[in-house]
Amino acid sequence: MYLQITHLHKHFNTKNGALVVLKDINMTIEQGEFICAVGASGSGKSTLLRQIAGLDTPTLGEVSIDGQCVTGPGPDRGMVFQHYTLYPWMTVQENAEFGLKLQGVPKKQRREQASYYLSVVGLTEFAKSLPKELSGGMKQRVAIARALTSEPKVLLMDEPFGALDIHTKESMHEFMLDLWQRTNITIFMITHDVEEAVFLSNRIYALGTRPGTVRKEISIKLPHRTHTVKRHSTFHDYRDELMELMRRHGQEAIAAA
C-alpha cells in the first residue's frame, strides 16, 4: 500500500484572478513510512493535507491510496488536528468510539476497538473521564486513539503538537515514535517545526512558498531516536539544511511579491 500524489495543482479563484496555492506536487509514500512535509506559511501545507483527506479536490492531478483515487473523506484516512476537536460532553471512551459510531459499527465491537487503542495510547484508566479533566498532551492522545480506532491505512496529522508547551511536545514526540514503531501505521504529518520533522520522520518533503512546490526530498538517517539525538552532529546537519532551504525560499517569495 502507498499514498501517491501525482502532478497535483490547486488554484483558488479570487477577484484578482487565480491564486495558485500548490503547483505540481509529486510524492510517493510507502506503507509504514513516517513522512513530514515541512514549509513556512504560504507553502500550502494545510491545503495539501486537505487534498489527501478528501476535504477538498485538486484543480489538476490526483491523490490515490492503494491504487484508489481519493474523491472524498473515507475511513482509510484518520485525521488528527492541531486542536483536539474532542466533544466536551463525551467521555474519553465515547470520543474514541465516535468515528465507529458514525460508521454504524455495533456497540460491542466499537467499545472493544476503542478500548484497545486507548490502551495503546496509555489512557485506559481515563476512559470514563471528560476532556476537561485531561492535560493537553492527554487530549491529543485521545484524538490520536480516535483516529486509530477506525484502523485507517494512513494517519494524517495537521501540526498536531503546535499548541503544546515544549516539555509536553517532546514527550509527545517520543510517544509518537513508539506508537509508529508498534503499529507500523503510515503517517503523513505537516509541520513548520524543522526539528520536529527531523526527529520524527524517515523522509521529509521541503515545500517552497507562493506557490507551494516540492523543493527537496530528504531521507533522514539518524543513529538513534531518543531526545539525546538532538545533540548529534547529524541531526544538526539535517536541521541546518532545512532551515537554509526555508530561509532561501522565503527570500525568493518576498523578491517575487
UniProtKB/TrEMBL annotation:
- Would I find Transport among this entry's keywords? yes
**Coiled-coil parts of chain:** none
Which organism is this protein's natural source? Allocoleopsis franciscana PCC 7113
Name the protein family.
Belongs to the ABC transporter superfamily. Nitrate/nitrite/cyanate uptake transporter (NitT) (TC 3.A.1.16) family.
Note the CDD domains from the entry.
Answer: ABC_NrtD_SsuB_transporters (cd03293)
Q: Where does the protein principally reside?
A: membrane
Q: Name one GO molecular function term.
A: ATP binding
Segments forming domain ABC transporter: 3-234
Entry superkingdom: Bacteria
Which InterPro entries does the protein's record reference? AAA+_ATPase, ABC_transporter-like_ATP-bd, ABC_transporter-like_CS, ABC_transporter_ATP-bind, P-loop_NTPase
- What are the annotated GO cellular component locations? plasma membrane
Matching Gene3D superfamilies, A to Z?
Answer: P-loop containing nucleotide triphosphate hydrolases
Name of the featured protein:
ABC-type nitrate/sulfonate/bicarbonate transport system, ATPase component
Organism phylogeny? Bacteria, Bacillati, Cyanobacteriota, Cyanophyceae, Coleofasciculales
The membrane-topology field of this record reads: Peripheral membrane protein
One Pfam family per UniProt: ABC_tran
**PANTHER family for the chain:** ALIPHATIC SULFONATES IMPORT ATP-BINDING PROTEIN SSUB, TAURINE IMPORT ATP-BINDING PROTEIN-RELATED
The record's keywords, sorted A to Z, are: ATP-binding, Nucleotide-binding, Transport
